[in-house]
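Purpose: get a first structural picture of the assembly so the mutagenesis plan has something to point at.
Setup: two entries, given in the order below. No constraints added.
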Amino acid sequence: EMQLVQSGAEVKKPGDSLKISCRASGYSFPSSWIVWVRQMPGKGPESMGIIYPGDSDTRYSPSFQGQITISVDRSTSTAYLQWRSLETSDTARYYCARLVWQNDGRSFDLWGQGSQVTVSS
Amino acid sequence: QSVLTQPPSVSAAPGQKVTISCSGSSSNIGHNDVAWYQQFPDTAPKLLIHESLKRSSGIPDRFSGSKSGTSATLVIAGLQTGDEADYYCGTWDDSLSADVFGTGTKVTVL
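Result (structure tokens, whole complex):
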């Protein structure tokens, strides 16, 4: 069974660092792009950036460039999303998903269960 | 702020049909296929439709998608109580160089 399993909920203070994870199983991890998606309370999803595990090619959405770091560990089939210094506005649920390319578009066909991040003083 | 606009809510009685629109521009829907996602509270989105009109594996044919110009549409026919959820469109935006999602539509079964 194909799965993306994410790390658990986190409660942090402003200025803290954080790294959350997304472990893939049941398919060829190096061969499919992974996206990280932010969903703030009551809002729609926002794509933060994508990474190709095969060669770690990483592309950040303009709104998130410089704010986060996306990485992978091919030995454990795990993708990561990292912050150096959290802000209260980073409070959200974060999802990883698998990106599939089609002829004239792309979609996210496999999703992790989400990781709740709460940043509060 | 999303570049894809959806109606905040739609509703209909069981067995009826609802139509959800997704309005974009030439840099996104006008140039790229659209995907539709279903999301229940506190759960991850689920892919319903890809390439504007193709149903994902296991999705019943009550769900159908289409695209014309800079807009896309999701139709849910034979509405069931289990269809109550939030629905989002998504596509690539060439100008933003980013994947973008719609504002979301809450479907209510009366």
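The radius of gyration of chain A is 14 Å.
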